[in-house]
Design goal:
Layout: H1 6-31, H2 35-46, H3 56-83, H4 88-94, H5 101-118, H6 123-133, H7 140-154, H8 171-192, H9 202-225, H10 231-249, H11 252-265, H12 268-273, H13 275-281, H14 291-308, H15 313-318, H16 321-335, H17 341-358, H18 363-377, H19 386-403, H20 406-410, H21 415-419, H22 424-440, H23 448-457, H24 459-462, H25 475-489, H26 497-511, H27 519-536, H28 553-565, H29 573-589, H30 593-609, H31 614-629, H32 636-651, H33 656-666, H34 681-706, H35 713-728, H36 735-751, H37 757-776, H38 778-784
Helix pairs in contact: 1-2, 1-3, 2-5, 3-5, 4-5, 5-6, 5-7, 6-8, 7-8, 7-9, 8-9, 8-10, 9-11, 10-11, 11-14, 13-16, 14-17, 16-17, 17-18, 17-19, 19-22, 22-25, 23-26, 25-27, 26-27, 27-28, 27-29, 28-29, 29-30, 29-31, 30-31, 31-32, 31-33, 32-33, 33-34, 33-35, 34-35, 35-36, 37-38
InterPro entries: ARM-type_fold, Vps35, Vps35_C
Function: Plays a role in vesicular protein sorting.
Protein name: Vacuolar protein sorting-associated protein 35
Length: about 800
């Protein structure tokens, strides 16, 4: 059991003190060129590394102190041999007489570095000798640091191609053999650490081993830097030897780390050309190894390699990378029966990313990956694991981001099947992602079949997915979701009227099922989309003979009537009324009087039966009056009926000021500039007089309730209406009538004790306008001239 806390700090301090003490005397000996004492004190210094009391982290601190001193010893040995004081061979023999094996091997490696540099013996022989002798240390921590030192001092002295230490033709194999042998021995020592000590300290040992992993991985990095390791040597020698060691060590930590190392340190091109060998090792790893992370990293690296240059893509086709990766993932998932769903999905996300980068034109590959996902989900309930659902969103988003076209995703049969496995919340999230993709890329969905497929995908937004309505849904989120559906409806378009009508019918079929909460958001865009088609067809009527479904305005108005009726179940009468009036105006443009009259009838029925709020009634009656004023399709009888209704309802509003304003607005129904024949001056005057009577009544009521005559602003508004019709040439509105009204207002303003600044400013502005018209001259100036202000 390794100690902790203060004891360990004390032992570390003692070890460092021992190294410093002996290093001091060693330096004195070095300065005196006393080789014998230098070796004696260096052995004593290095003996501090024989401790078993320190954790790997603390031992590393001790090792680095000794390492720095060994660098100085190496320089001394180099100078001594250069001066000829002692030959390097004699020095190599001399240090082997050190009493203890650990200091002896550290010194041997140090002299070995000088020996190789002197070139008095082939580098391969010295390295072979050193790597063999290091087997004398079998303590895991001490052995790992010793071999790490050997790796460090030899990395620039390997007999590599182009190196100054290059020997015969077979020299690279010796360099590779040395590094692999050192790697193999270090890995054995590293794995052995796991099996030393009591079981209860297993977690602690794993943590300590994690701290030492880079010592082992450094060998693979050195191996990857050897110039002579070309693709053939890597394929035939390096990879099989390394994988053999990884598989045979049967240690979870070692296998995960070393597989990751292989993927990170060797070139992507090598991975591609040895894919089968590399992937063949994965199913042989321990069941507890986190293969998904390593395999995902491999696919990510290959994806980036494919994206780096278009020239490398043929290599991927040549080695059939997709099928090999797909098969390997299938085998791994099959072998690891306990792998959580999120792990499998992560693998499929990486495979899909790889496919979209390497084979973007192969939709069958993309669908194959999605199909494998569906197969993994089969027999399972909807996914509740948040990490898994997040990965599925990533999986389904990848094709949208790659192709920038929902149409491509709609061609994938397995795309909706994957979405079906999402829980309701994530289904909505994915639906919003799809809509955002369509909006971002301004994708136009142009056929009813595509619309049907699309609405099946986003069904989580357009109808309740379970029987009980979720009362906990955030109101703001709900509004945003429904607004996104509304925006989507405007992206559905086809220039062919027949197909566009089919699209409208498809959308209607889906949104009618949305329930009362959604209809106020989704019905209006559908209505306006249909009205756009109506205006495109303007002038057509009747059914085309021989066609069962024909895109005519009448047919569309029938659909619109039924669609708007659905809003009454919400209930949302004000919205329905507005939409009926929009349809009436469109029917007017198509010259369909019966249809327009029916829509107005429905609007009046809604007003009578459903609109109860007084403010809503005011808004509604002004909308009705404004729309009716623009209608030119009605005959005399129908128009009279509707205008009579409008004026009647105007006079029945609750508040007198509202009555007054609605009644004087009705005056425009009897005088329309654009239409010949509708210039009934008498009825205009009747409306204005009636408005005056109501304004007068409002004044009297104000006098009774507040003790004053009340505001005169209604009279000023009516005066402005009189001026409008006076200018338009209504013979019933004369200058004497205007004069009388001006005098009335002045009298009212004088008798009113309380002044209203807004009314004063309005009246002053009106008088300035009259004065301006008088001064302008011409025919209009003559008309205004009799008025005295």
């Amino acid at each position: 059991m390794l100690p902790h806390g203060d004891d360990e700090e004390k032992w570390l301090a003692e070890g460092i003190a021992g190294i410093q003490h002996n290093a001091f005397y060693m330096h004195r000996a070095l300065d005196s060129n006393d080789l014998k004492d230098a070796l004696r004190y260096s052995v004593q210094m290095l003996s501090e590394l024989r401790t078993s009391l320190l954790s790997p982290h603390k031992y590393y601190e001790l090792y680095m102190r000794a390492f720095d001193e060994l660098r100085k010893m190496e320089m001394f040995f180099r100078e001594e041999t250069a001066r000829g004081t002692i030959s390097v061979i004699e020095l190599y023999e001399l240090v082997q007489h050190a009493g203890n094996i650990l200091p002896r091997l550290y010194l041997l490696c140090t002299v070995g570095s000088v020996y190789i540099k002197s070139k008095e013996a082939p580098a391969k022989d010295v390295l072979k000798d050193l790597v063999e002798m290091c087997r004398g240390i079998q303590h895991p921590v001490r052995g790992l640091f010793l071999r790490s030192y050997l790796c460090q001092i030899s990395r620039d002295k390997l007999p590599d191609i182009g190196s100054e230490y290059e020997g015969d033709a077979d020299t690279v194999n010796h360099a590779i053999e040395f590094v692999i042998q050192n790697f193999t021995e270090m890995n054995k020592l590293w794995v052995r650490m796991q099996h030393q000590g009591p079981t209860r300290e297993k977690d602690k040992r794993e943590k300590e081993r994690s701290q030492l992993r880079d010592l082992v991985g450094k060998n693979l990095h050195v191996l990857s830097q050897i110039e002579g390791v070309d693709l053939d040597i890597y394929k035939e020698t390096v990879l099989p030897r390394v994988l053999e060691q990884v598989v045979n060590c049967k240690d979870e930590l070692a296998q995960h780390y070393l597989m990751d190392c292989i993927i990170q340190v060797f070139p992507d091109e090598y991975h591609l050309q040895t894919l089968e060998t590399l992937l063949g090792a994965f199913p042989q790893l321990q069941p507890t190894v986190d293969i998904k992370t390593v395999l995902s990293q491999l696919m990510d690296r290959l994806s980036n390699y494919a994206a780096s240059s278009i020239e490398v893509l043929p290599e991927f086709l040549q080695v059939e990378a997709f099928s090999k990766l797909s098969n390997a993932i299938g085998k791994v998932i099959e072998a690891q029966v306990d792998m959580p769903v999120v792990g499998a999905i992560t693998l499929y996300v990486s495979l899909l990313t790889f496919t979209l980068r390497v084979h973007p034109d192969r939709l069958d590959y993309v669908d194959q990956v999605l199909g494998a996902c569906v197969k993994k989900f089969s027999g399972r309930a909807k996914l509740e694991d948040s990490r898994a659902t997040k990965q599925i969103v990533a999986l389904l988003s990848a094709p949208l981001e790659k192709y920038n076209d929902i149409g491509t995703a709609l061609k994938l049969p397995n795309y909706p099947r994957v979405m079906d496995h999402l829980d309701n919340g994530t289904n909505k999230v994915m639906a919003v992602v799809i809509i955002q993709s369509i909006m971002k890329n301004t994708t136009c969905i142009s056929t009813a079949d595509k619309v049907e497929a699309l609405f099946e995908l986003i069904k989580g937004l357009i109808r309740d997915m379970d029987e009980t309505q979720d009362d906990e849904i955030d109101e703001e989120d709900f509004k945003e979701e429904q607004n996104s559906v509304a925006r989507l409806i405007h992206m559905l378009h086809n220039d062919d009227p027949e197909e566009m009508l089919k699209i409208i019918c498809t959308v209607r079929k889906h949104i009618i099922l949305g329930g009362p909460k959604r209809l106020p958001f989704t019905v209006p865009p559908l209505v306006f989309s249909a009205l756009k088609l109506v205006r495109h067809l303007q002038g057509q009527d009747g059914d085309v003979i021989g066609e069962e479904i024909s895109a005519t305005p009448k047919k569309i108005f029938q659909i619109l009537h039924q669609t708007i009726e659905a809003l009454l179940s919400v209930p949302s009468p004000e919205l329905a009324l507005r939409l009926y009036l929009q349809c009436a105006e469109a029917a007017n443009d198509c010259d369909l009087e019966p249809v327009a009259y029916e829509f107005f009838t429905q609007a009046f029925i809604l007003y009578e039966e459903e609109v109860a709020d007084s403010k809503a009634q005011v808004t509604a009656i002004h909308l009705i009056i404004g729309t009716l004023q623009r209608m030119n399709v009605f005959g005399v009888e129908n128009r009279d009926t509707l205008t009579h209704k409008a004026t009647g309802y105007s006079a029945k509003l609750l508040k007198k000021p509202d009555q007054c304003r609605a009644v004087y607005a009705c005056s425009h129904l009897f005088w329309v500039d654009e239409q010949d024949g509708i210039k009934d001056g008498e009825r205009v005057l009747l409306c204005l007089k009636r408005a005056l009577r109501i304004a007068n009544a409002a004044q009297q009521m104000a006098n009774v309730t507040r003790g004053s005559s009340g505001p005169v602003i209604l009279f000023i508004e009516i005066l402005n209406k009189y001026l409008y019709f006076f200018e338009k040439g209504n013979p019933q509105v004369t200058s004497s009538v205007l004069q009388g009204l001006i005098e009335l207002i002045k009298t009212e303003m004088q008798t009113d004790g309380s002044s209203d600044p807004s009314a004063d400013a309005f009246f002053a502005s009106t008088l300035r306008y009259i004065q301006f018209q008088k001064q302008k001259g011409g025919a209009m100036g003559e008309k205004y001239d009799p008025i005295k202000i």
